[in-house]
Amino acid sequence: MKQVEVVFALPDRATCLMVEIDDDTTVEQAIIKSGIYDKCPEIDPAKLKVGVWNRTCKLNTTLKDGDRIEIYRPLIADPKDARRRRAEKAKDEGRADKITGGRARG
Fold it and tell me: Would you list the domain boundaries of the chain?
């Protein structure tokens, strides 16, 4: 028997569950066996994005002893758009050069 951890985190709390699995258990099977869907109704099984040790993977990935399955939440904002908005704001506030985008000299 192997043991893996299933993790789901929200901004204010995290749920970590240990699960004993057989040798050929997949990520999806371990998630179901953990019972995390009952503890965290925010998880949408139809839109599941997962990873093992911070590397995204497919639900049919076979697990090794000690693996940590991470269930990812959907992004609220596109990181590129957020960066672009911060850069524009810095230019408008005079904290960045309007042409190069680098730090303004003051």
Answer: 2-72, 76-106
